[in-house]
Amino acid sequence: MSLAIEDLRISIRGRTVVDGVSLALGDGDRLGLIGESGSGKSLTALAVLGLLPAGSTVTGSIRLDGRELVGLGDRELAAVRGKRAGIVFQEPVTALNPIRRVGAQIGESLRIHYGFSKRQALERAVRLAERVHLPDPEHIVQRYPHELSGGQRQRVAIAAALATGPRLIIADEPTTALDVTIQAGILDLFDREVGESGASLLFITHDLAVLARIVPRAVVLAAGRVVEEATVEGLLTAPAHPVTAALAEAAYATGFTDPAFEGHR
Fold first, then answer.
1. What's the rounded Cα separation, in Å, for the pair 69 and 53?
2. Cα 52 from Cα 42, distance rounded (Å)
3. Which parts of the sequence belong to the ABC transporter domain (predicted)?
4. What pTM was estimated for this model as a whole?
5. Are 159 and 88 in contact (CB under 8 A)?
6. Rounded to 5 degrees, what are φ and ψ at 65?
7. Of 226, 221, 225, whose CA–CA distance to 247 is shortest?
């Protein structure tokens, strides 16, 4: 699965919020997209799947395995979402439907894209719940999101994104709302699942310490523009742009340590 974004520009009600972003992600690659709040990183990801807010206009090119996505209609984009590309959002409380059992939500894309029956989808949901290390899978799929912890809800969201075996996974700040211990478990889960499936991963965050644990390379955004692209090690140890330097300082200020980067500060 390859993703190529070229000269992407996004305007919302006449205001440019993403300005000329380009990046490339090859089959099985992992790439970080990092920036401060309001930098345009999440909007860039949402543009890939046609999930931008009403009033948005998009120019430039977004190609998924060579197919141009910019300009596709809702029905065509819906066929891409959940099947060829899965997304995990920052806050599962808002991403998950509060009045539907989690098993139905995990299996929904299987029913939409592959015509699974309700029973078949639920059986697969149980296996997916086990795969993402949710406790007591057969019972947890019968529960509602508010009955689960924050970490469990995020694992449900990951299971739903993985259900159809997409070749591209977009993770939009998936650990931001979680405490440090739960963050580590979620990152380990992403690392294992992406590694085993061979899917491509676009991981979005504002935290360089998080990126250091999940991807080798990253693109830095500021005010909707790409300001730097380098290995994560390079961004942490020799940032070339003031925004990147601030992100690196923030990572170290939170107690980030990694043997790979020792002696470089």
1. 16
2. 10
3. 3-248
4. 0.90
5. no
6. 50, 40
7. 221
For the segment 231-244, what is each residue's pLDDT rounded down to a tens digit?
A: 999 999 999 999 99
| Unique residue bearing structure tokens 């149980």 | 126
Q: Which of 262, 213, 256 is nearest to 237 (CA)?
A: 262
**Bridge partners of residue 11, in order along the sequence:** 16, 57
Identity at 246, one-letter amino acid code:
A
Residue position matching structure tokens 């998080």: 210
| 31 to 11, 70, 96, 216: CA distances (angstroms) | 24, 21, 26, 7
pLDDT digits (tens, 9 = 90+) for 38-72: 999 999 999 999 999 988 999 999 999 999 999 99
**Could you tell me the domains of the chain?**
1-84+171-265 (3.40.50.300), 94-165 (no CATH)
Q: What is the model's pLDDT at position 117? A: 96
Least Cα distance to 229 among 35, 19, 3, 61 occurs for: 35
Quote the CA–CA distance of 168 and 25 in Å, as a whole number. Answer: 9
List, as own/partner pairs, every contact residues 179-187 make where C-beta atoms lie below 8 angstroms and the sequence separation is at least 24, other chains included: 182/150, 182/151, 182/154, 183/210, 185/133, 185/151, 186/151, 186/154, 186/155, 186/158, 187/213, 187/214
